[in-house]
Amino acid sequence: MRQLVKRIEQFANLYTDRESLVSAGAQLSYQTLAQRIHSTRDELQALGIRRLGIYATNSFDWAILDLAASSADIVVVPIPLFFSAHQVEHLMNNSFVDHIFTDRDFPFASGQNLASKTLQGEYVQRNITAPRTLPDYCKVTYTSGSTGQPKGACLGEGTMMSIVTSLSEALIPSQLGRHLALLPFATLLENVAGIYLALWMGRSIFIETPDQLGLSSNHTFDPHMFAGQIKASRAESVILLPQMLKLIVEANVAESLAGLKFMAVGGGKVAPDLLLKAQALGLPVYEGYGLTECGSCVALNTPLANRVGSVGKPLPHAQVRIGDSGEVFVTGAAMTGYLQDMPAPSEIATGDAGFIDTEGFLHITGRIKNVIISSYGRNISPEWVESYFLADTRIQQMAVFGEAQPHLSAVFVVSDALNDRELQELVRTVNEALPDYAKVMAWTRTAKPFSVDQNTLTSNGKMRRDVIAQKYFELAYKGEVAA
Prior knowledge:
The chain has 483 residues and is α/β, with parallel strands linked by helices. It has helices at residues 2-14, 30-46, 60-70, 85-95, 157-171, 188-200, 223-233, 242-251, 272-280, 382-390, 420-431, 465-478; strands spanning 19-22, 27-29, 51-55, 75-78, 99-102, 113-115, 122-125, 139-143, 151-155, 179-180, 205-206, 215-217, 220-221, 237-240, 262-265, 285-289, 299-300, 313-314, 319-322, 327-331, 337-338, 347-356, 362-367, 372-373, 379-380, 397-401, 408-413, 440-446. The chain is globular and about 65 Å long. The N and C termini lie far apart (53 Å).
């Protein structure tokens, strides 16, 4: 990211003492940040590193290492800490990383471990020869996908910087100050729209490990701890996932979040009713849309152009069209390709179903592959139906079924505090807002949450709908309660 590092150097010269990275007990000025990037870059080059994996939690060092490596033409490969050992091993072999920086014990050491002189951690050397040809990408980011087999999307500096400048242009009117980095840095969305964007705009970033901010695992979030950190850090922006927003609304912590100016929500379908409830609490919530293959950001609602139910207007760097089947296609923001399967087409087929309204707002209705075709020939996106129900804070999780069936059925994950009669009334109320063909006519319930351990969620939290259907469809269709 040579262009971003040059920008940091400019801020260092213009604003000597301006804060860049901040935590509860430390801070770096832009001048010190620039110096640390330079010293880390020298260390990486002295070690002869060509492809660097980062297996560490959020920290100043993570951000510094990422910028130092990519500005030295070293390919950076973030390794999600929630990946299984099998997935990490596949990632290493697939990406040809020759060194891995880690702040913890690493289970796959194969060569010498070298303590860093500039960072709190060590480099794990691998007995592997990285390709000698300089690639046309600087980052490989892996997603586990629905099958659990990680795929590496290769992203060039030009693509990521076009997204950063596009987001910067959209957010300048909001006059945002400090950003709180909540999501793991191995998540491309926080990497690009958090670290890179904030530094490009000359803002500061509040960095602590996610568990100190309320995100104790990939599926566990404490809204009260989060709210306390927002208040203490004086942050004005944050990036959230839909379930986090739901828990925040349920927890009634809006007063502690009064300093926030921009809460970006993405990574999944957000119920319009949930957004309206959040806005009624005074929360500045704006839904966006993107995917790894498109550098994480394609569209975003902003204070100047906001439509609840949409994911915003496409950002200036992205061109969006809707195919004949209703699929969303994107050009102008694309990966180079999947590692060892390149090049990528110039137009990315997102796999998402959607439409663009008359005022240019993009609406995402669900995944093309998840679309249910009823026995009456109606095409129904389960995510769309689920979003209506999940807006009710008493519904923890939900999956809708109905392929080749005359009506929809569902499995609800709810606590015992909601009895069957109350759940039936909830279903009746929500159904009133849905068209006839999309009403849930039968259901079952369970207190057992969908989880990775139950094999009903992927490692990055997406539902394994086929597994859930095998387990619950018959009960749901018959309207029998699960054990």
